[in-house]
User: What shape does this take?
Amino acid sequence: MTSVFIAGDWGTSRLRLYLCDGDRVIAQKAGPGAVGAGVVHEDVLFSLIDPWLAEHGPIPVLLCGMVGSRNGWVEAPYAPCPAGAGGLRRGLVRFEARGVSIAIAPGLSGTSPRSAPDVMRGEETQIIGALAEAPELATGKHLLALPGTHTKWVQVSNGRITGFQTALTGETFALLRDHSTLAKAGGADLGAAGEGFAAGLARQHGAPEGGLLQALFEVRSRQLVDGWSPAFALDFLSGVLVAADVDGALDLFGAQARPVVLIGDAQLTERYARALSRWSVEVRQLSGETCALSGLRTLFQINS
Amino acid sequence: MTSVFIAGDWGTSRLRLYLCDGDRVIAQKAGPGAVGAGVVHEDVLFSLIDPWLAEHGPIPVLLCGMVGSRNGWVEAPYAPCPAGAGGLRRGLVRFEARGVSIAIAPGLSGTSPRSAPDVMRGEETQIIGALAEAPELATGKHLLALPGTHTKWVQVSNGRITGFQTALTGETFALLRDHSTLAKAGGADLGAAGEGFAAGLARQHGAPEGGLLQALFEVRSRQLVDGWSPAFALDFLSGVLVAADVDGALDLFGAQARPVVLIGDAQLTERYARALSRWSVEVRQLSGETCALSGLRTLFQINS
Assistant: This one.
């Protein structure tokens, strides 16, 4: 059986493709995330991988992410929690296109500790990858966070995802930045967390007095009255939201004896690390891209 | 001195004009709120009041609201807290246009109980009106709430506004309804609060486990997994946000021995009344339109 395959992390914002030989990445390419109306996922994929297929023959393709959603290429229904790598493998949707075997990883459905229903798609593969990257996570209970548009807080127990809760943190930030009265003069992108972020964390940490909706208006009033710059105010907004997210999640999942495992983009996980340090919670940071690739590799290997 | 004058509440969404003779309203008209580029406030106003001036001569005009902001007609700088009717009167900006005396009420600047700077413009006149409508509010300490795009929580002590805090409640609701992934299938307007609202209140009341950002994602997941209708989910979203606002405000202003005075549109103040009842806080509801007119009348009378 060949050890050469194509792994793809196909989310709403980007497609990342890897030509793999076992644990080695031979080549990689990037493509568009969500495809436009009238555009066919199959065409997008093959236009990118045709050169690889020409060289290596009809090697299998394994994809994860929004490509498996109802509005994606082929729907891969949510697998139920608790689920580990085996449960995801059983949920793979397999089909053939242009003589190539395609498999798409399922999303996961589960509940939060307070029994709210929840779903994820793409993050489950990153989590399986995190377990491979940091084998000590495969035993015992761990709390993982995958910050982003929809931040996922995930409980893992003995290598299986047992429950999770999503927070609307990144999407709320983007809405307030782009469409609200808070940041009309702003629009600048966030760089590394600065003093504004620290001020936002301090404002919202444990929210001793006044809630999140009250803190949000301060983003505006401090610009009007205290002369804060739009960039400082935007960083403050990020701090307020990240602190509110962390506060809610720690409240929900309870105190953790072990570090929180942060998976994602380095600048974003660093923001969460700073917030968690205010609660004296240690963190371990893993690259989201590395974990996604590692998860796809794990699913491919147990599938072979 | 004439008792006939024109009162106008000119906010961002609407201009409400009243032709008053003492405590009696002889006629009223509505016009646009924010005026477009190249449109002159003076022209908008006079096109509406010219018939009244033709009948009653050059009677004075008293305006409140965003018309006095930096981007309005003539800026009426924020008066400082603590302030009562006298402080607002001293802050009136007066000028003449087309032979008519115009006065614009100032906004207010103040701080929240946790010393965050804050501003209001328009609500201060409604509050002065509330003190006239409910004279028992003129002595002792009272907590008032003016729900809306930017909900104002206001401490009044012996007839003076001593401090306040704004919450971004209505704007956040509108952003999430119109621009987020939570309610794409929605878009329906909210009517009277229903079972979805009650479920949202129950979810967020005291936020026993999990914060607001976590609750927001449930608006989406409950539609996906539990089959909630978009209308029910939107009502739930309203309940979650109103409960979060009330929770933050009561935390900030402390337990009140007296009812919270709710000023605004009847359907919206009723939502806040329902939320406050979960905290066993009684309310008194006053019409925002009535209070604005009453406040303008009070300012006119002490100004005459």
